[in-house]
Amino acid sequence: MVFKRSVPQQKGSSGNFASVCPNFLREPSLSCHGYSGMKLMVFVKPIALLAVTLSGTILFILLSHPNQSSTSREPDSMARSFILWLHGLGDSGPANEPIKNLFSSPEFRNTIWSFPSAPSNTVTCNYGAVMPSWFDIHEIPVTADSPKDERSLLKAVQNVHKMIDKEIAAGTNPNNVFVCGFSALTLASVLLYPKTLGGGAVFSGWVPFNASRTEQFPPEAKRTPILWSHGMADRTVLFEAGQAGPPFVEQVGVTCEFKVTYASNSTVAQLDWYVTPENSTQVVLNSQAYPKLEHSINNEELRYLESWIKARLQSSS
Predict the structure, then answer these.
(1) Is position 76 annotated as part of the catalytic site?
(2) Domains and CATH numbers, the chain
(3) In the annotation, is 183 catalytic?
(4) Whole-prediction pTM value?
(5) Which of 6, 152, 183, 189 is catalytic?
């Protein structure tokens, strides 16, 4: 039960990426190969491709996901909320839409979802190939010291801010706005937004700007909580790149919860770091184990995201 992202290779090597679902395939040159877990693999020409794509296991997850109910709050008392989901390089918004079906708790009855698609741009790590991209990425795998293209990043951030502004203008309380997604755009969009939002959830991300950029973080943005999830077996955005994130946001006064999939043979345990502006770090090792996670997001992570957002939703009263 894993939402599989691609595992791109470095320039000059061959690679493949996981398919979203057969009906999302558009290129006749792509061929699907399934296996018992319903994960579909698509083989492409040698190209470094950092893409977030959902595997065929999404069908299994959606069919097996139990209806959940909550007695903590009456759903009718919940105000309108907004979840903006940002896909990764080479992917599309519609390909990620099935994720919302996992958020079945009554608290999300008044939630508006948005799955925008990135414009097509040239991507340096892909030899200048044109593909859906929010901003330019210079190399794969992404490390903590990878080059940062702040110019294209800030342009993408402006576009995301327009989406958030539009929703707030429509009547949604900023405290009920959540920005989630793969890669690094979520972090940049949240930390540069002039208001405090409900939260930002980063999956397999990294710090996309230099330390000097922190001077431009509005005080209001620093009060937006961050949930950061990263697989230790990630070979596309290396774990070291994700691990550098919580200390970075902590030093500017942002509360960040860092969830890690800790590899141990064929299973992983969930390791959480709670980093607060008060420099107090609490480390908790949960006993729950699940299959090894690489450059992907699994069902357990999404269920935790659901509970994390639920705990921060504001009522209409």
Answers:
(1) no
(2) 74-310 (3.40.50.1820)
(3) yes
(4) 0.74
(5) 183
